[in-house]
Amino acid sequence: MIWDKDIECLTHEEMQELQLKRLQDVVTRAFNEVPYYHERYSQAEVYPEDIQTLDDIEKLPFTTKTDLRASYPFGLFAVPQKEIVEIHTSSGTTGKPTVSGYTKEDLDIWGEVVARGLTMMGVGENDIIQNTHGYGLFTGGFGVHYGGQKIGATVIPISTGQTLRQIELMQDFNTSMLIFTPSYGLHLAEVMKEKGVDPKDLNLKVIGFGSEAWTDEMREKIEEKFGVPAYNIYGLTEVIGPGVAMECPEQNGLHIYEDHFYPEIIDPKTHKQLPEGKNGELVLTALTRVGMPLIRFRTKDITNIRHETCGCGRTLVKMDKISGRTDDMLKIKGVSVFPSQIEKALLSIKGVEPHYQIILTRPDILDEIEIKVEASPEIFFDNVKELIGIRDKLAQAIHDEIGLRVNVTLVEPKTIDRVESGKAKRVIDNRGK
Amino acid sequence: MIWDKDIECLTHEEMQELQLKRLQDVVTRAFNEVPYYHERYSQAEVYPEDIQTLDDIEKLPFTTKTDLRASYPFGLFAVPQKEIVEIHTSSGTTGKPTVSGYTKEDLDIWGEVVARGLTMMGVGENDIIQNTHGYGLFTGGFGVHYGGQKIGATVIPISTGQTLRQIELMQDFNTSMLIFTPSYGLHLAEVMKEKGVDPKDLNLKVIGFGSEAWTDEMREKIEEKFGVPAYNIYGLTEVIGPGVAMECPEQNGLHIYEDHFYPEIIDPKTHKQLPEGKNGELVLTALTRVGMPLIRFRTKDITNIRHETCGCGRTLVKMDKISGRTDDMLKIKGVSVFPSQIEKALLSIKGVEPHYQIILTRPDILDEIEIKVEASPEIFFDNVKELIGIRDKLAQAIHDEIGLRVNVTLVEPKTIDRVESGKAKRVIDNRGK
C-alpha cells in the first residue's frame, strides 16, 4: 500500500517542478525572516531571485552544525516563538545542543512522512507499534509516535529500558511492530532468549530501526533472531527527526521524502555535488519546514543517491543506508577506516556474536587496533581449536576490508557492555592518552 | 481567559442535562460493546434504560482497579483494537498494570481538557512550557503535551531527570511554565540554589503540579522558592490521565471537567453518595471516552465536591485537592492517619525544610512513629537550643493534628534522599518486620 500515491509516485520531472517551487519559497522566507540566512546570503551575494533552477541550489552557502550552535537557541526560527509548539534538541554531548523548533504545520509534516514510511513497511491501523525509542528532547520517540497516530495504528509509547516489561508487553499486547536501535534490539533478543521467550511465538511482523548506523550483516543477525524483516528509518533532529527517509520492502535503499527534504551528495572536501551513485556527504534542505527553514544542511552522513523506479513502485529518490559519518571516520596509521567496515567483516564470520568494541591505542609511535568480539556461547566453552581458527579468520576478513592488521580478542559471551537505551559505544580511542 | 466559555460556564441545570444525555449514551455503549459491563449490569439487573435521571447512576455497580486488572489487557475496550491509537498503563508496582486505551477522539478530549486548564492558569500561545513529567506508558508527560499543543504554547518535552540540563534550558529557552511533581520541584529548587540560580531572575510565570498528593503548606514552600503561583493538576491514567480536574487562580479547589468526567463522592464503607462538601472517596465516570468507557470508577482518592459559581467565573463543579487515598491511610495504634496530616503539621513550623520521612516501627507490641525531617541549614549548624525548641514544637503540632505522640528527629540538611523523577517515598512502614 502507498500512503500518498500522488507524491510517492510522481515522475522525476513533476517532482523537480514541485521541489523548485518549494525551494524558491523556502529560500525567500529564510532570506526575509531569518537574520542568519539574510547575512550569509548577502555576504555570498546570492539572493532568492537567483534560484531559477534546482541546480542553482549550489550557489547557496551550506549550513553546518556549528552554524546552528552559533544561532543557539532560537536564532534560526523563521516565525515568532508563539507559533512554535514543540522544541527538540540534538543530544549535544559537548557544549550547547542544536535546537529544532516545530510549528503545528511542521508536526503535521513530520507525522505525514513517518506515516508514509510505516505504510511502506506494511504497517496500518490494525498494527500495534511498541516504540522503544526515548521520548523527550530527543526526536526518536515522537517521530514514530506522530506517524503511528496518523496511520491509526496503536502506539505503545513505552520508551527505552525496562527490558523485562518490554517483553511482557510484547506478549500481552500482541505487539506487531517493534521500533528500536540495533544495539537495543540485540540486547532485547538476548534477554528474550535467556527468559525462554521465542520471538517467533509472538505476533511480531516487522521491525523498524533507527538512530544508529548499521551494516547489512547486523540486519541479518537481527532478522534471524526475531524472524521478521527489519527496515531502516533515517532522520536528523535538525532536519525534522526520524522520517527523512525510510526503507521499503525491497531492502536496497531508503526512499527520501524528497518533496519535503531535498538531497544532495557532495564531496566533503571540494564541496561540489557528486554524480548519482557516488558516495559522499549527504546535504539536506528542508523544503517545507515553517518554523525553522534549514537550507543545505551538511549532515556529515555518508551515502549516495539514485533516481529509479523502485520495485515497490515508488519513484522517490533512494539513498543507501548510511555507511559512516565524515566525523566517525577513523584515521589509523594514515588509513581511513569506518567502524562499519569492521562490523561488516566481523559479522561475515560464523562463530561470533554482534557485540564488539574497537580499541585504538598508540603504545609507541604506531597505532594499534584491538577488536574485542564475543564468541558464540557454543563455541567459546567447547572448542579452543575452533576459537583460534575463528580469530584468524576474523583478522583476515578485517584486513581484507580495511587493509590493516588488527589484533582480535575473542571474549566470553555477554562480557561486553549492553546498552539499555540509545546507541552502543563501539569505538574506544585511547591514542594520545 | 476561558478556553470554552460555553461549557465552563454552563448553568448547573444545563450541565446536568448534558451529563444525563452522555451518561445514558456511555452506559448503553458499555452495556452493548463491553462484555464486562454487560455481565456486571445483567447480574445487578440494571439496564441502560434504567438511567432516567443522574441519580440513577447509583444503581450501577462500581468499577475498581481490581476489575480493570481482571480485564487485562484489553477487556474493557469498547471498540476494535484498530480504532485504538494509543495505550497507556498505570505504574502498577505489583502484578499486571491497568491499561488505558485511547481512540483519536479520546486523545482529542484529553488535549481539550488540559487546554482548558492551562488557559485557566493564564498560559497561552506565548508561553514556553517545560514539561518535566516522564513520557512513556505513564500518562504524566503526554497530558500536558497534548494540552500545550492545543493552546499553541511551545512545549519542551524534556521529561524527568537531568536537573542541570533543566536549569540550563529554563535560562536559555525562557521557560515561562514549569510542570513537575512537588518532590521534583523541591529538588530542582534546591539544585538551583546550589548553583546560584535565582528562579526570580528567570522568565518563570506559573507552575503546574501533578502526580503527587500535596498540602497547602507544601504549595506555599514551592511558591516561595520559585516566586510564582503553583496550580494543581489532577487525573488518573484509568480515567484519561492528568486533566480530569485542574485548579484555577482562586487556589481553593480544582474544577472538574464534569462534561467529560462525572464525579460522585461516596462513603468508602457504605458505598452511598455523600452530600456536597463532605469528604469521601471520589468516584468518576468518563462520560465521553470512546475507546474505553469507565463507569463509576473508584479512585480511592479522598476529597469533596461543591457546586458554586467560582470567583474565576466558572460554574464547573469544584473538588478540594486530594487529602489522601483510602489506601494510603495508615492505621497507627488504631488511629487513622494520613501522611498529608503530618506534612501539614510539619510545614506549619518554621525552621524545617519540606523533606521528611515517616518511619513506623513496632518494637514491642505498640506502634511507634518517628518523623525524620531536615532542619533548615541556618538553624542546624548554629543553634542547638533553637533546634530543641523546634523539635518540641513539631511534636506538638503533629499531636494536635493526628492525636498521637511521635518522635521527631531533626536531621542534617540534604540527608534525606531526593527523587530525580516521580514520587517521593514518604512512608517507611517497618511494623511487622
From TrEMBL, chains A, B:
Q: Which domain of life is it from?
A: Archaea
Locate the AMP-dependent ligase C-terminal domain: which residues? 334-431
- Domain (AMP-dependent synthetase/ligase) spans 81-284
Pathway(s) where this gene product acts: Aromatic compound metabolism
Indicate the enzyme's highest-level EC class.
ligase
The EC number(s) this enzyme carries: 6.2.1.30
Which key words are in the record?
Ligase, Nucleotide-binding
CDD domains named among the record's database cross-references: PaaK
Q: Which InterPro entries match?
A: Adenylate-forming_Reductase, AMP-bd_C_sf, AMP-dep_Lig_C, AMP-dep_synth/lig_dom, ANL_N_sf, PA_CoA_ligase
Q: Under the GO molecular function aspect, what terms does this record hold?
A: nucleotide binding; phenylacetate-CoA ligase activity
What is the official name of this protein in its record?
Phenylacetate--CoA ligase
> What organism, scientifically named, is this protein from?
Methanosphaera cuniculi
